[in-house]
Amino acid sequence: MVSKYERIAADLRQRVRKEEFAAGERLPAETVLMDRYKVSLVTMRRALDLVEAEGLVERRHGIGNFVRAPRQRVRRTTDRHQWEKDRVHLSESERSKTGSTEQDTGLDKEQLVFHAEYSDCEADDDLAEALGVPVGTHLLERTYRTRAAEDAPFNLARSYLVHEMIEANPKLLNATNEPWAGGTQHQLFTVGIEVDHVTEAISGRPPSPDEAEALEIGPGVSVLVLRKTLYDTGGRAVEVADIVMPGDRTELLYTTQLKRWPI
Fold it and tell me: Which of 105, 118, 125, 138 has its CA 20 to 30 A from that of 14?
């Protein structure tokens, strides 16, 4: 059963998102809100605590509650994969001008802060099955965090490549070469791998405590978990990536072109 404070938080959330309360605007005083929603101060503050935890409102002690500027939204489409493949044969200077994150957010490269870490690991049961390799296979694990001016990253991305597939190009094993102009598809191209198709499996769940802290999401906000798998022209899985995205500021748009009936 939904509690009173959750219903109030839902109403405030909707009003903020519809811009009935504009960014930077002060909310009505707690006593005014108490009267409007006909609840006690304790209930009203629990509702405000909830929308504050979600990043919609900030409390300025001694002044009041103010609507925060909206977080950067991300719109991820399936077009991104063909867009990345089309750029593989471009020059490095052309590939360096923009990337997938810029396409997803509409931001310029100069507005983004990028961080990558590389480490070695062995394939567990899950990754072995996903990559079609034996358990214990030597993998390169890559973690990515990209953010705008705000502190929270757009997502938590973890990518896995089979070490043996890419070791012919030592540059692919060194995180200092990130961000790589052209992304993963160009990295694979440098070792003779052409990506043929991509699968993306998506599920939703509550965030872990570490995910909630890293993405700066509050109670009641779920995460979207996307597992992306790249396959080469021979049907071999060449990359598996797990991407955790905040549900309150991520949109996934998938367009499927259907074959027409014969005339």
Answer: 105
